[in-house]
Write a structure and sequence with these properties.
The protein is an alpha+beta fold. The chain contains 17 helices and eight strands. It has two domains: about 160 residues, 2-Layer Sandwich (60s Ribosomal Protein L30, Chain: A); about 240 residues, no CATH class. Helices cover about 55% and strands about 10% of the residues. A six-stranded mixed beta sheet has the order 3-2-4-5-6-7. Strands 1-8 form a two-stranded antiparallel sheet.
Length: about 450
């Protein structure tokens, strides 16, 4: 693929848009980000807050720890720390640099009980409104479809246009100073349209990964290597969540690269779900998916003594393959995104072993045929165990084809050709599991309510 090819520029833009750092699980961080922006719009700490969130957001925030809150979980904690200590100019790292005094103030604010959360009935799986009130004034922010995509921002009912680049200075722009309302002027790129992602294919992704000028993506990929391995190592050093990564190493030892790939990746999720404040470079809006597409490939590259160039090209392939699979389903769904990320990792590992289109395509089909249908029941400690399974399946998909074993068209959801198979998987995740998603959310919301008939 040549630089003048339109797909070349598009694939670069997708990488730059998708591979961004985030501190903490991205759904509570999006809420903290919204709280920080709306606080600056109101230009005061509010007396009252109303959060309206879609079911998928509630599902993914309910059980996960929020960084820099001293072990607090849930939507209210994310709002409080975003209001008190959030730096909106840092977007998905909005609460990465909270001062100790701000932690105390956020805990005191949370204890006041002035944050109300309501279910928002929406056709958008990712839909969030945060409205704040003080002294007769109000401000409202509306995020939709992705974690920093502001579609509406108001103060006292009037539209506000803003620049992410000036948020650190607590300044709001006059209406004429930003040409595109509610967009990131000079900051993170405006979210790409669905049509852009429709132009991804495994064959073209491999062509791009093999031909791209690495100087154009080096900073992005190196950041993913540095950040994601740092949190994986932190997860193995200390106790977080269910300690899935440490358990894998304890049970199976560290001599086998397949075990290390699973353990390091799961440990990164252990730490991230457990409230660690180290950043992760995400994929498809998810830190867990960012870990899954990268850490196993990095571990294998070290084992194989792969060159830096081969590692970078394998990671480009892994990232874009996962984005290709997940983008058709949307950011949030009942389909667990680490499955698609595990397929991406399998593709990257196949590449490091010298595999090219045929080997990579069969690796992805094998992997996705095994694990498709794993449900997302929110962000929490058990995500690390699902990640370990997804990594294992990505590796198994490659090893199967290496031994000339494969799943064939007509077996389950497998069709002739990788793109036809992926179309089936996207259809399953986007359409087929809609009712499943509703039931999962309903069960989680019912469980959150006190049961007067329950006996301890």
């Amino acid at each position: 693929m040549f630089p003048h090819d339109p797909l070349y520029s598009l694939y670069l833009e997708i990488l730059r848009t998708e591979l961004v750092p985030a501190t903490g699980c991205t759904e509570p961080i999006a809420i903290a980000y919204a709280a920080a922006v709306v606080r600056q719009t109101l230009q005061a700490i509010p007396d009252r807050v109303l959060v309206q969130a879609s079911g998928n957001l509630i599902k993914n925030v309910k059980s996960v720890y929020v960084p820099n809150t001293d072990g607090q979980r849930g939507m209210e904690a994310a709002v409080a720390i975003g209001l008190i200590g959030g730096d909106a100019s840092r977007e998905l790292e909005v609460i990465a640099s909270v001062e100790p005094t701000q932690k105390v103030q956020a805990a005191e604010y949370l204890a006041r009980g002035v944050i109300a959360v309501e279910y928002l009935d929406s056709t958008h799986p990712f839909d969030l409104k945060v409205t704040v009130y003080k002294d007769g004034h109000s401000a409202m922010i509306h995020l939709q479809d992705s974690h920093t995509n502001i579609v509406e921002l108001k103060k006292d009912g009037a539209d506000v246009q803003w620049s992410a680049g000036e948020l650190r200075d607590e300044k709001l722009l006059p209406a004429a100073s930003c040409l595109l309302p509610y967009s990131h002027c000079g900051s993170q790129p405006t979210p790409l349209t669905d049509d852009a992602y429709d132009q991804l294919s495994v064959k073209a992704i491999l062509d791009f990964a093999q031909s791209v000028d690495l100087s154009e993506v080096e900073s992005i990929i190196q950041a993913q290597i540095d950040c994601n391995m740092a949190i994986a190592e932190e997860g193995l050093r200390n106790r977080y969540g269910a300690n899935v990564g440490k358990t894998i190493l304890s049970a199976y030892g560290d001599a086998d690269v397949k075990v290390r790939a699973r353990a390091y990746t799961a440990a990164g999720s252990d730490a991230r779900m457990g409230g660690c404040n180290l950043p992760v470079v995400i994929n498809s809006g998810s830190g867990n998916q960012g870990l899954t597409v990268s850490v196993p490939v990095i571990v294998y590259a070290k084992e194989l003594n792969s060159s830096k160039e081969d590692l970078f090209r394998a990671l480009i392939l892994s990232n874009l393959t996962a984005i290709h699979i997940k983008s058709g389903m949307g950011r949030l769904s009942a389909y667990c995104g680490v499955v698609s990320a595990g397929c991406g990792a399998g593709a990257g590992i196949a590449y490091l072993h010298g595999g090219r289109y045929r080997e990579i395509a069969h690796t992805v089909v094998n992997a996705i045929a095994i694990l498709s249908g794993v449900v997302c029941d929110g962000a929490k400690a058990s995500c690390a165990a699902k990640i370990a399974s997804a990594v294992d399946v990505g590796i198994l998909g490659f090893l199967m084809f290496k031994d000339e074993m494969q799943f064939r068209s007509g077996e389950g959801l497998v069709s002739a050709g990788i793109e036809a198979t992926l179309h089936n998987i996207v259809r399953l995740g986007k359409d087929g599991m809609k009712e499943t998603d509703k039931e999962i959310i309903q069960m989680m919301m019912e469980r959150a309510q006190p049961n007067p008939d329950k006996r301890e």
